[in-house]
Every structure is written in C-alpha cells, then in structure tokens.
Amino acid sequence: MVRHTVFLAVLFALINGWAYAQPLRRYVFDRGLFGTEFRQIFYAPNDSTAQRVRQAVNARMDSLNVVMSDYLDGSEINRLSATAGSGRWVAVSPDLFDVLSRAVSIANASGGLFDPTIGPLSQLWRRAVRRNLFPTKPELRKAHRLVDYRYIEFDANQRKILLKKPGMRLDVGGIGQGYANDEAMKVLQQLGIKSALLDIGGDIRLSDPPPGERGWRILTGFGADTTTLFLSHVGITASGATHRFLDHNGKRYSHLMNPRTGLGLLHHVQTTILAPDGTQADALTKVFSVAGIRKSRRLVKRFPGVTVWITEERNGKPVKWHSKENP
C-alpha cells in the first residue's frame, strides 16, 4: 500500500512537471472589480490551467471585496464600523485584521498623512463632488473630528478590534487594491504561476518577468512625460488629480484628501510609487501626494525599498522630484 501511494505521488509529480515544461502561453483576463477594471496577465502551459488559475484568483478577489468594500452595506468592514463607540471588541477575519494592521502601520509611519478612519470625510467629499457642492464648514468639522487612526485598537492574540469613537467609519480604499493584488499574487504562486502582472485600476503588482524578458515593460508618468521601466517582483502605483476635483471660490480641490486638514489637496500633484509590494505602493501614493515634494525628501527615509516620483504644479509650471533609489 505504501509503495503504491509513493508510485502515485511520483507519477503525479512527473505529470505535473511535464505540464509545466510545455512552452508557456500568455493569457489575459479582464473583469470589473472594486469599481474599476481588474486585469490578470500571466503565463501558463495550457488553456485548462489558465482557466483554473483565473477562477481561483477571481474567487479570492471576490472574497476580499465582501471584506473590505465600504460600498457594500453588509461588508465586514461596514459591520465593524457600525460598532464604533460601543465599547465592544469585535472578532474579525484574518484579512480584515491584516489590512487594517498594515494601514495603521503606514498611518503611524507617515504621521497621519494616510488614515484608514477617513471614512466620514470620504463620504462627505464623494457627495460634494457628485453634487458639485462644496461641504459646509460645520459638515467638515463634524467629519474631521471622527478621523484619527489612533481610535483603532488591536488585540492580536484574539484577533479582535475595538473602534473607540462613536460615528467613526473605516475606509481602506487607499490601500485595499494594492493589498488585493498581493493576495492574488499569492494564489498565482501557489498554483505554480511564476510570471504574472496584476492591474487593478492602475495599481500594479509584478512577479517574474515574461519568459525570455528582463522585466515587465511598465510605462509610468502622465501625458507626454513618461518613462519606460523594466520591473519584476514589485508593486507600482500612480495617482493624480487630473480628472476628479471640486472648484470652490476660485480654488481647485483634489479628490485626494489630507486627513490632517480634512480638505482635498490644493496643490496639483502627480505621484508614482515603486515599492516591494502592492500594499505599500497603493497607500504611499496618498502619503507622498499629501506630503508634497518638500516634506517627501525627508519622509521617504522612513520607507526602505521605496522609490518616489512627484510632479507638482507651482505658479503654472511643473516641478519634478525623484527620490532615486531608497535602499
């Protein structure tokens, strides 16, 4: 019986190894996700393998959507937000505990330039942009008082979370797409896919380069000012206020908000982040956009392995800064 089992195991390994020894083919799959487009590009030996991989990745993404989306009434993060101020410690899923832990860690390292409790302000500004109506000062004050990542407490031993202030609301939209890409990449690796590119609305995560290539060819930048990079095993995200903004009293406010002030950014900024993973790349586009060039020169030292490109508009002229490599 033992000999028979060993024989079957060896046979399966040989068949599996033969399958992946076949010439790899490029597969591309697109779908809607998180209110934007999700693209999978990877190399697999055959159609049946590619379909199995696609389905597994999609299932993982769907599971994360019902955890992290603040647009779904019954999502886990919204159910947690509903307990704010109750004094109750809430047991949460490993995914929600992990993404909120990562978010608070980045919030702390950035001095609050990124904040996963920005939900009240997010809702206020979404409504303002949709109606093209600037929020009133009382509305802004009320929402801003509820934003502070230090209102979140964690119990790692029991995997529980406490939201201390009544009315606070969680929003991981500034980190969730990068986190989802990282989780999807884990699925690909578990299924033996080595060369892959995942793209959720411009949040990109890369593994090995395509066969025979030195890296994935990534075009980064805005408008005519672009650069081609050859990359692998990184996350890269770009963010800008090109299309979504609100004009008020002669000033243009970006959809990108400063959690410290409660207002959209006034300086026109375009930011690209190259980081060791998608989670960092996603969140840090917000951090360095809010910081601007002057503060980013010092701030980047807090994030090893991260490279930053920023273009700001000053007096109608573009000003550029690149952090080079940050070992």
TrEMBL record:
Keyword set, alphabetical order: FAD, Flavoprotein, Magnesium, Metal-binding, Transferase
Record's cofactor remark: Magnesium. Can also use manganese.
EC number: 2.7.1.180
GO MF, any single term: metal ion binding
Reactions listed under catalytic activity: L-threonyl-[protein] + FAD = FMN-L-threonyl-[protein] + AMP + H(+)
Similarity annotation: Belongs to the ApbE family.
Keyword Ubl conjugation on entry: no
4Fe-4S found in the keyword field: no
Binding site residues for Mg(2+): 174, 282
Name under which the protein is recorded: FAD:protein FMN transferase
